[in-house]
Amino acid sequence: MFNKSPLLPVLSATVLAAVSMTVLASDVVLPVPQHIASAAPSPELEAVMLAARRYAAFWNSGDPAYAEQALAVDFTDRTLPPGREQGTAGPLQASRTFRSAVPDLKVEVSDMVAAGDRVTVRLHFTGHFTGQFGKVQGKGQAIDFQAFDLYRVVKGRIADNWHLEDNLTLLQQMGVLQQ
Question: Rounded distance, CA 16 to CA 24, Å?
């Protein structure tokens, strides 16, 4: 059940502050969500949100260490795109491929909603298509699209991921598809 009381911003700030105090030294660049809604704060919920922030840091930086911190050993992508390997190898390969096309890729967490062992995030991707994507060479086009992810977190790591990206907007911005 989500807390809709006027204290939500205070509770969310308290949870975020507590999460920030428990992060690893390498976590100093974790994205901070612009908006957070969560159930009552607890150590378990803090771990759920920390896993989501670490995974966002992976997409923001391309640093595989964040994926290793965020993902369970038996991580399962429940909406696996064709051609992507299951497990942690899938996101690592996807990040490398996308970063070769959009080297200045940035990812922000616009929204985060957490309850129990689940957290959902709305991610905002921006950058410039200057590399190669398949057979298409970028010409510096601006990239600006969103994605929504739902994670199930077990023992502080993402065990399952369901995701939906706005690929139509992305491919139109890249010039791969006509608008």
Answer: 14
| Cα dist from 11 to 22, 152, 156, 177, whole Å | 17, 22, 20, 44
Strand spans (E) along 41-156:
71-77, 106-115, 118-129, 132-133, 136-137, 141-154
The CA-atom distances, in angstroms, between 177 and each of 85, 88, 132, 143, 168 are 25, 29, 15, 14, 8
- Cα 14 to Cα 141: distance, rounded to the nearest angstrom: 39
Residue 172 CA to residue 167 CA, distance in Å, equals 8
Q: Encode pLDDT of 7-32 as tens digits.
A: 344 344 434 434 433 445 455 579 99
Pairwise CA distance, residues 64 & 151, whole Å: 18
Tokens of 123: 């991610």
CB neighbours (10 Å) of residue 35? 12
The stretch 89-114 carries a mean pLDDT of: 97
| Residues ≥6 apart with Cβ < 8 Å to 160 | 75, 76, 78, 151, 152
Torsion angle of the four alpha carbons 85, 97, 33, 25, in this order, in degrees rounded to the nearest 10: 90
Q: Measured between alpha carbons, how far is 88 from 85 in angstroms, rounded to an integer?
A: 8
Q: How far apart are CA 175 and CA 100, in angstroms?
A: 16
